[in-house]
Amino acid sequence: MNIGIDKIGFYVPKDYIDIVELAKARDVDPNKFTIGIGQDKQAVPFPYQDAVTMAASSADSILTAEDKKDLGLLIVGTESSVDESKSTAAFLMDLLDLPEDIRSFEIKQACYGATAGLQTAYDFVSNNPGKKALVIATDIARYGIKTPGEVTQGAGSVAMIISQDPRVLKLDHKSVYMTRNVGDFWRPTFSKTAFARGKFSNEVYVDFFQTLWNKYQAKYDVTADDFSTMLFHIPYTKMGTKALRTLEGKVSDAKYAELTKHYQASIKFSRAVGNLYTGSLYLGLLSYLVNAAKAGEEVLFFSYGSGAVGELYSGQIQADFEKVIDKKALQKIIDDRQKMTIDDYERIYQVEYQDGTIVDPKTITEKFYLSEIKENERLYKKLK
Ligand code: HMG
């Protein structure tokens, strides 16, 4: 049975900061941020937005009544959840008008969560032919103002419907994975911002890619020549470049040039949005589908989540993908945003809603929003 991604959509907050302006405000050479880190813009969510509202928005962009009827599984991958007990998935039931007879839950393993969700969805569809699964990646990457990680922040969500006879990407059901107890990045439950050993996290990420690539080649008897594209987890776009560079001199010059060209197409959206944590790899897939993908291409995916879990798997871009991927509409989501000043970003960053907060709907510019915190319970609404 062919199983994979039948639809994919995303949501990004409508406001962003310019990375050159951020560099200037931090007294840093802008080239460090635009070339050394590889970012141009960073999405900034409003306080009435969170992992729940962004997940609802990305899913709402692809879900039809027909999809909802066939849905049997909903998985949300996130490391920015709003509740230590209730899953982000449960909040979505009302916001998305989903039927009750589905299994739903949340997965947390840093930026690996959505890939765990995707592979679980594969097994679900394979065991329940005709049923569909909705997998959502949703996160707000926060390191804090004036920290080294600030330039690698961002926010957004990617939603995917996994089904039989997928129109976007058929998963090959070939993968290798690994887990190691590593202290490269963590966020204790008391903290809204992450802690990272930045340079060390880079080393672990690259080491995981090399280890898994060696495993993948040995397990499936393939080489780089079997793939036209490699997509990477991209917390910031220089990161994937570092993993890709490990292949330079080990594959033919022509293959390396092709992989590099395709990688450039896959990072266009991330350069403009920033870090989506677990959605980053899948924002890369979207960017590639919009900017360069060809039907029939074999694509290798490197998923990495600090702590740390890594997985390398492959898939094939399907003949009908252009019928499902509205390139103009997706590009418009990126282009139609507005720039926020660094002062406003710093002001919004500090806002923390307390119990008793009621959000005035007149101030809302999004379809889904946090409307109230009552008895410490977060309540959400959808603008009609
Ligand atoms: P830093 O200390 O600010 O920067 O930290 P740096 O000194 O390492 O410089 C960065 C790059 O800019 C270097 O290039 C410099 O040479 C270059 P590289 O050696 O990396 O190729 N540079 C310049 N280039 C041009 N013109 C200039 C210039 N100056 C310097 N004038 C760091 C950067 C990314 C470490 C920091 O932002 C950080 O700690 N970020 C958070 C951690 C992170 O993103 N790690 C990524 C790997 S771990 C991961 O992927 C997991 C994650 O997604 C979390 C999860 O799984 O949930 C993060």
TrEMBL record:
Task: List keywords of the entry alphabetically.
Answer: Transferase
* Chain ranges of the Hydroxymethylglutaryl-coenzyme A synthase N-terminal domain: 2-164
Residues holding (3S)-3-hydroxy-3-methylglutaryl-CoA? D29, Y143, K242, N275
Entry-linked Pfam families: HMG_CoA_synt_C (PF08540), HMG_CoA_synt_N (PF01154)
SUPFAM superfamilies, alphabetized: Thiolase-like
Every Hydroxymethylglutaryl-coenzyme A synthase C-terminal domain range: 249-351
Instruction: Please give the biological process terms from Gene Ontology that the record holds.
Output: acetyl-CoA metabolic process
Entries under InterPro entries matching the protein: HMG_CoA_synt_C_dom, HMG_CoA_synth_N, HMG_CoA_synthase_prok, Thiolase-like
Annotated GO molecular function terms are: hydroxymethylglutaryl-CoA synthase activity
State the active site. Answer: E79, C111, H233
User: At the top level of its lineage, which domain of life is listed?
Assistant: Bacteria
Q: Which NCBIfam families match?
A: HMG-CoA-S_prok
Its family?
Belongs to the thiolase-like superfamily. HMG-CoA synthase family.
Q: What's this protein's name?
A: Hydroxymethylglutaryl-CoA synthase
Q: Which organism is it from?
A: Companilactobacillus mindensis DSM 14500
